[in-house]
Write a structure and sequence with these properties.
Blueprint: E1 17-21, H1 33-41, E2 46-53, E3 59-61, E4 66-67, E5 71-72, H2 88-94, E6 99-104, H3 118-130, E7 139-144, H4 147-156, E8 162-166, H5 172-181, E9 186-189, H6 196-204, E10 208-211, H7 217-226, E11 230-233, H8 236-245
Parallel strand pairs: 1-2, 1-11, 2-6, 6-7, 7-8, 8-9, 9-10, 10-11
Antiparallel strand pairs: 2-3, 4-5
Length: 251
C-alpha cells in the first residue's frame, strides 16, 4: 500500500510504487478503462495515462496525437472519438483509491499544439472537480515532457504535484535543476538514466524519482539499487512479483 505521507516520495527503505504504463499490458487496449482496472487488478498501485484535448474541449485519454484511421484528436469533436477512448473524468473514476500519473500531451512537433496550454489548465479543473471523494484517485501527479504544460498546472494549482519527464537524449542532471526551479515534485527520467548520483541529487532537491518504462527484472534491480521512488511498467505481474521477491532494503 502507498503511504499517504510519502507520495510520490517513498520513505527510506519503504516500498516502491508500481504504476501500470497506460494501464499495463494485457488482453485490452492500452489507455482504456479496461486497462486501468486490469492493471490495478494485477497488482499495480495505480496507472500512468496520457491526456489530449479534442477540438471542442473534451479531455480524452490517448497516447498518440492521432487515432489510427480516424484523424488527429485536436481536429476531432468529442462525438467523433471512438467509445473505447475514455474521457479523463471516466479514467479517474476507474482509478478510484489508486495512484494516477496524468501525462499532458502538448508538443510543438505534433498536430494541434496549443501554446496557450489549454489542456493543462483544464486538467487542473477536472482534478479539482473530483473532490477527493470515494470515486477519486488516492494520489495524482501531472507529468509532461513539455515544461510549459507543467508551468501552467503550477500556476493554476501549485498544490498539485508535477513531474518533468526527461527524454533519453537529454541530460537528466540538467533536467533535475530545471524541474526544481519550476517547482516540480518529481523528475521522471528514462530508467537507464537513473543512477545513484542522479537519485541523490533529485532527493537533495526535495523531489522524488519516477522511472519509465521498466519491463525487465535486470532493469528493476538497477533502479531499485539507485533508490528510485516510483516505477512505471507495462509488465505489472512480473514487476510486482520481482518487488515482492526482493523487497526494497537499500537506500
Amino acid at each position: 500500500m502507498i503511504e499517504e505521507v510519502s507520495w510520490p516520495r517513498r520513505r527510506p527503505g519503504g516500498p516502491i510504487t508500481l504504476l501500470g504504463h497506460r494501464g499495463g499490458s494485457g488482453p485490452w487496449r492500452e489507455n482504456t478503462l479496461e486497462a486501468f482496472a486490469g492493471g490495478i487488478g494485477l497488482g499495480a498501485d495505480g496507472v500512468e495515462l496520457d491526456v489530449r484535448r479534442t477540438s471542442d474541449g473534451r479531455l480524452v485519454v490517448h497516447h498518440d496525437a492521432e487515432i489510427a484511421g480516424i484523424g488527429a484528436i485536436a481536429g476531432l469533436r468529442a462525438s467523433e472519438i471512438p467509445p473505447w477512448v475514455p474521457g479523463l473524468e471516466e479514467a479517474l473514476t476507474a482509478c478510484a483509491g489508486a495512484a494516477v500519473n496524468v501525462e499532458v500531451k502538448n508538443a510543438p512537433t505534433e498536430p494541434g499544439f496549443d501554446p496557450e496550454e489549454t489542456a493543462a489548465t483544464e486538467v487542473v479543473a477536472v482534478l479539482a472537480g473530483t473532490g477527493g471523494g470515494k470515486a477519486a484517485p488516492a494520489h495524482v501527479i501531472v507529468s509532461s515532457f513539455w515544461p510549459a504544460s507543467l508551468q501552467a498546472v503550477h500556476r493554476a494549482a501549485p498544490e498539485i504535484p508535477t513531474g518533468l519527464l526527461v527524454h533519453p537524449a537529454l541530460d537528466a542532471t540538467e533536467a533535475a535543476g530545471r524541474a526544481a526551479a519550476m517547482g516540480c515534485t518529481a523528475l521522471h527520467p528514462f530508467h537507464a538514466q537513473a543512477t545513484s548520483a542522479l537519485v541523490d541529487l533529485v532527493h537533495g532537491l526535495d523531489m522524488s524519482v519516477a522511472v519509465w518504462t521498466v519491463n525487465e527484472r535486470s532493469d528493476l534491480t538497477a533502479v531499485m539499487a539507485a533508490g528510485v521512488d516510483v516505477v512505471i511498467s507495462d509488465r505489472i505481474t512480473a514487476m510486482r512479483q520481482a518487488l515482492e521477491a526482493a523487497p526494497y532494503e537499500g537506500r
